[in-house]
């Protein structure tokens, strides 16, 4: 569904924002694109969604170059949730979504009310201006906007930003539902939990280059410390100790309370591969 080969882009002469990116995203895959501010992820997403041209290399979505195809057709096929909600704040949720739904063909567009209900939007705000909404409420309307056209490819930029824990769980469930329908999801996020729970594969971007690309499980296994943390009781006291697998094969403490594997988190792998934190 998405093919990127030798993608290079420069905002200024001699300063490359993207330095030869190569990756592919399969149909129905949730692909995580992770990187700190200034790493090039926003530029990549602008190119993929046809907002930014002037790049070198090859970019194809559904076999078409996004900046060289019929825009009216292309934008019927994708949905975009921006990091900062792109809504008319003087209009209500209902008026915003009625306006945006007019861009889609009748065959594609979804019914607004069932979509808002599924997103657990508070219906007493339905006709109030967006300016009066909390960030979480705006995020629900923005997600509804992204899903209105029943997209083949869904671009999500920080989808759970501003949501409480239950709202974040709901959004993850909705993203999984989209994948089960065959929708391809390109997820840009700083939230390692979202990436770990949702993504089939993740790419770590650092200074315009891909530092690592694999499944979350494979990346964590690759950087595992190969130790387990054992909590046990000795002389009535609770004791915690890290063991190597070799040590566990030789001796094992009695009265084990619990054992926790010590594989790294996805965020730890990101720091090791890029040398930077996501908020840097």
TrEMBL record:
Signal sequence interval, chain numbering: none
Taxonomy of the source species: Bacteria, Bacillati, Bacillota, Clostridia, Lachnospirales
Alphabetized InterPro entries for the sequence: AAA+_ATPase, ABC_transporter-like_ATP-bd, ABC_transporter-like_CS, ABC_transporter_ATP-binding, P-loop_NTPase
Keyword ATP-binding annotated: yes
Record-annotated ABC transporter domain positions: 2-232
Organism annotation: Eisenbergiella tayi
This protein's UniProt keywords: ATP-binding, Nucleotide-binding, Transport
Gene3D superfamilies in the record: P-loop containing nucleotide triphosphate hydrolases
PROSITE patterns in alphabetical order: ABC_TRANSPORTER_1, ABC_TRANSPORTER_2
Protein name (Swiss-Prot/TrEMBL): ABC transporter ATP-binding protein
Amino-acid biosynthesis found in the keyword field: no
SMART domains, per the entry: AAA
MF annotations from Gene Ontology: ATP binding; ATP hydrolysis activity
């Amino acid at each position: 569904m998405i093919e990127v080969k030798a993608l290079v882009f420069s905002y200024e002469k001699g300063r490359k924002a993207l330095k030869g990116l190569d990756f592919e995203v399969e149909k129905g895959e949730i692909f995580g694109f992770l990187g700190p501010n200034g790493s090039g992820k926003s530029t990549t997403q602008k190119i993929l969604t046809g907002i930014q041209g002037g790049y070198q290399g090859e970019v194809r979505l559904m076999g078409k170059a996004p900046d060289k195809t019929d825009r009216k057709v292309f934008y019927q096929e994708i949905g975009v949730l921006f990091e900062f909600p792109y809504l008319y704040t003087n209009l209500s949720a209902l008026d915003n979504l009625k306006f945006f739904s007019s861009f889609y063909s009748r065959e594609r567009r979804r019914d607004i009310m069932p979509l808002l209900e599924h997103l657990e939007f508070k219906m007493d705000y339905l006709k109030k201006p967006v300016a009066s909404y909390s960030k979480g409420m705006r995020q629900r309307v923005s997600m509804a906007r992204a899903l209105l056209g029943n997209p083949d490819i869904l671009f999500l930029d920080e989808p759970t930003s501003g949501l409480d824990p239950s709202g974040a769980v709901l959004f993850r469930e909705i993203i999984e539902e989209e994948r089960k329908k065959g929708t391809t999801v390109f997820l840009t996020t700083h939230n390692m939990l979202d990436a770990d729970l949702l993504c089939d594969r993740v790419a770590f971007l650092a200074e315009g280059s891909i530092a690592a690309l694999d499944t979350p499980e494979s990346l964590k296994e690759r950087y595992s410390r190969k130790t387990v943390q054992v909590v046990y009781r000795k002389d009535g006291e609770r004791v915690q100790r890290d063991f190597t697998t070799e040590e566990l094969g030789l001796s094992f403490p009695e009265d084990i309370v619990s054992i926790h594997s010590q594989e790294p988190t996805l965020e730890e792998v990101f720091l090791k591969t890029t040398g930077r934190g996501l908020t840097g």
